[in-house]
Amino acid sequence: MGARGWSLRGPAAGVLGAALLAAALPQARPAAAPAMPPTLDYDIVRRGEVIGHQHITFRSEADKTLMHSQIDIKVSMLLVTLFHYEQTRDETWAGDRLVSLTAKTDDDGQKCDLRVSATASGFEASSGKESWAIPSGAIPLSYWHISMVSGAGPLFDSACGKVMSAKVVKVGDETVPARRDQVTATHYRIEDPARQRDVWYDANQVLVRTSVVGKDGSAAIWILK
């Protein structure tokens, strides 16, 4: 099946000011965020061919971690683009608690301009003219953050913001290729009626590998450089 059978879409298709956020959220000190290197760079491989890249940067402000991600994927044949995916995403975390998320995504023509902000009862989300609530304890499908697999709340799509019917299963420790070497990492599977996703974290909780199965059954593999 051609590349158009493969997609990154999820199963369903203003950030609060500091003072307001402090008033709205519980004042318990958040759990410590995983210590991340300044940057993470991934090759994205499908059927043995590099089809894209993801570049992630991190910086700290007071007790918060700010993440910026850029994903660019293109599948071509004879100079014709068969599939493209572009996303720019910014997240702010206080420990293991998401404060805000913004994402601009073009998934082969389906576009989302997502904004998510923490509230006293969960999250407020919007994209275009549509707005909706995301329940308290929900966690974005942000593969880099270990809370995606360790948290108890439901997952929501970090591209278009819809709550997912997914379950996280710990598979176990495995040796996988990453960092131009073989590394030991803990494998988790995100079981989802729409598609299978797998993630691997090393002993420092750094994401070293991701696999996302497309509609045609082929997998796109993120490999940490």
Q: What's this model, at a glance?
A:
With 225 residues, this protein is mainly beta. It has a domain of 157 residues. The chain is built from two helices and 15 strands.
Outline the biggest β-sheet.
13 strands, antiparallel
Radius of gyration: 17 Å
How many E strands? 15
Query: Would you tell me the structural class of the helices and strands?
Result: mainly beta
Global geometry:
globular
How is this structure best described in words?
The chain is mainly beta. The chain has a domain at 8-164. It is 5% helix and 57% strand. The protein has 2 helices and 15 strands. The strands form 2 sheets. It has a 13-stranded antiparallel beta sheet with strand order 8-7-6-5-4-3-2-1-15-14-13-12-11, with no helix packed on it. A two-stranded parallel ribbon has the order 9-10. The longest helix has 7 residues, at 18-24. The two termini are 29 Å apart.
